[in-house]
Design brief:
The protein is mostly beta strands. The protein has helices spanning 58-64, 67-73, 309-312; strands at residues 7-18, 20-24, 30-34, 37-41, 49-53, 79-82, 88-92, 95-99, 107-111, 122-124, 127-131, 142-147, 155-160, 167-174, 179-185, 192-197, 203-208, 215-220, 224-229, 236-242, 248-254, 257-264, 267-274, 284-290, 297-303, 315-318, 321-322, 328-334, 342-352. The protein has three helices and 29 strands. Strands 1, 22, 23, 24, 25, 26, 28 and 29 form an eight-stranded antiparallel beta sheet that branches. A five-stranded mixed beta sheet has the order 5-4-3-2-27, with no helix packed on it.
Length: 365
């Protein structure tokens, strides 16, 4: 096995403009949201224009004018991607919305009637996939929905038996495998990572039944998944999970749970979250950056604000979906002091790490 090369990552954070980080396109286009309006910049944040918006009821928009009202209602765009045909898909409070390329007003293409809105979705050519999320699926099947026509229509793609798991955190495309990684939660035997076949006919569990497998987002590497864990009663770590045998290796202990992971070119980034957890009582959340997925540098440390975490959201650093290959990006804050509903820009420089005894022998764990 080839030894891991080590370069030190030096982040430089600048700016703080209103909004929530959503998406970085392959040509460096930036997308952020302000409540239900989505803005685009093609000059790395120097100027912004309205790209599209999610329509909402008058009463909801009125309450959401106040920041605490928006936080209480969860009135924000939770996920957003540009599909291969140029259409845009967004997750809002009551479902998935879509706009054709060039359209400004989005329309709802999937209404959530069970549980709450999905946390994430996957885009794979004309396919869009997401799993059900919520706390009321104990006595029913949990479903993965799929669209085969760029998000225009959705149907059931796969179902888990009654009582098998609590909900789905994410579905991830793996370019090196003929399938999709499904991340499930939350307790007992429920948390796990399974590979769903490309034809959506079968799922094989890689590993399950461990809080180290309670994952919301992950970096898909050729031989592993690298991610932050999301336990609310155990200590949390950045872990490496081997794709062949499901072996779990702890890399770095975190101050809290993790909801986001992104790759800004050669730099991997994982963020943390402040939520009530007796094993992780810290009120800080932050970003962790790595060039090789093994050595991690903590930066952009922020503190949870004084508002109730369940009514007015956990303190979280939000990372966007990223399709760009440059070592720079954006992130935003939620319910944290000084960065709530604000977008910051980050540039990474790489330099050779200082040699340490045994570095030439270092291998992936």
């Amino acid at each position: 096995m080839t030894a891991i090369t080590s370069q030190a990552v030096e982040p430089r954070v600048r700016g703080a403009i209103p909004g929530r980080a959503l998406y970085v396109g392959k040509h460096g286009e930036l997308y952020i949201s302000r409540k239900y309006s989505i803005y685009r910049s093609e000059d790395w944040g120097a100027s912004w224009q309205l790209d599209c918006f999610v329509p909402s009821p008058v009463w909801e928009s009125a309450i959401a004018r106040a920041r605490l009202g928006a936080r209480f209602l969860r009135h924000y765009v939770a996920a957003f991607q540009i599909l291969a045909d140029g259409s845009r898909v967004a997750v809002a409070r009551d479902g998935l919305y879509r706009a054709e390329g060039g359209e400004t007003r989005m329309r709802r293409v999937f209404r959530v009637t069970r549980g709450s809105r999905p946390l994430n979705f996957a885009a794979d050519g004309p396919r869009v996939l997401f799993g059900e999320y919520g706390d009321n699926f104990h006595s029913t099947e949990v479903l993965i929905y799929v669209s085969q026509d760029y998000g225009r229509t959705f149907g059931v793609g796969f179902h888990f038996p009654k009582g098998d798991l609590r909900h789905i955190h994410n579905v991830l495309v793996d370019p090196d495998r003929d399938g999709y990684w499904v991340l499930a939660g939350d307790f007992g035997r429920e948390p796990g990572i399974g590979l769903l076949s490309k034809d959506l006919q079968s799922l094989e569990w890689l590993n399950r039944g461990n809080q180290r497998l309670r994952i919301v987002s992950a970096l898909v590497e050729p031989d592993s998944l690298v991610c932050g864990t999301d336990s609310d009663f155990e200590r949390n770590f950045i872990v490496r999970i081997d794709k062949k045998d499901g072996r779990i290796d702890d890399l770095v202990e975190l101050e809290g749970s993790s909801l986001y992971a992104a790759r800004f070119g050669p730099v991997r980034v994982i963020s943390t979250c402040v939520e009530p957890n007796p094993a992780c009582p810290s009120r800080e959340c932050s970003l962790y950056a790595s060039h090789n997925g093994v050595d991690w540098k903590r930066f952009a440390v922020h503190e949870k604000d004084g508002y109730h975490p369940y009514f007015f959201q956990f303190g979280t650093i939000v990372l966007p979906y990223v399709c760009n290959s440059e070592p720079r990006g954006i992130f935003s804050g939620q319910a944290i002091t000084g960065l709530d509903d604000k977008v910051s820009f980050v540039d990474f420089s790489l330099r050779e790490a200082s040699p340490r005894a045994g570095d030439e022998e270092r291998k992936p764990p």
